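Supplementary Text 2. Reproducibility record for the structural model of the 215-residue chain.

All settings were left at their defaults, and a single model was retained for analysis rather than an ensemble. We include the record here because the model underlies the residue-level annotations in Supplementary Table 4.
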Amino acid sequence: MQGEHPPELVNRFFDILTIQKGLTKLLVDIVAAAVQIFFSAILLSFYHPVFMAVGLFALLAIALVILLYYKQGVQTSIDESGHKYELVAHLEDVAADLDKYRGKPEMMDKVIKTTDEITARYLMARNDHFCVLKKFFISSVALRTILMGGLLLLGSFFVVERQMTFGQFVAAEVIIVQISYAVEKLMTNLNTVFDMVTGSEKLAVVTDLELEEGK
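Retained model, structure tokens:
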């Protein structure tokens, strides 16, 4: 435990609850959305060969967005969590020895100043993480718009050219709508993945400590 702050390490076990809550959403919502997108893209290709390219485009676009912003999202989430635990540890230190600060305005001012500085860093990290989540949301909206617009243009053209029936066009539209909603669900729920990765990282600081051998 040399060089470590035990109260701050103990607080990290609260992340077990974060992982437990996130695991349900990961296994149900996120996995279901990913499976729905994959098989809907395959089903879409049966209506017209061009729609195969649309489904492939959707899969590649999702993969590209995740590759672009995933690492940044994890890093900002870890920074945010680090400042949160730093603030809690500071307040615990103050609460553990209140007599040291009671009746001493200069000491209280120092506590408040330190608290404000840590809180400011936390808010900056929180804002950076929110910006990453906003990028995922904007990407999902843009992808949904492209998919819906592309379907209307291509579907109308193929119906007019009698390359597909109106019924096939309607069925393809239903599938595209399902893909678009699944894309939104997948992108907006990535925050849960970031929380789980951050929680695992925080717990690893404790669980990876070397055990002290008894003498």
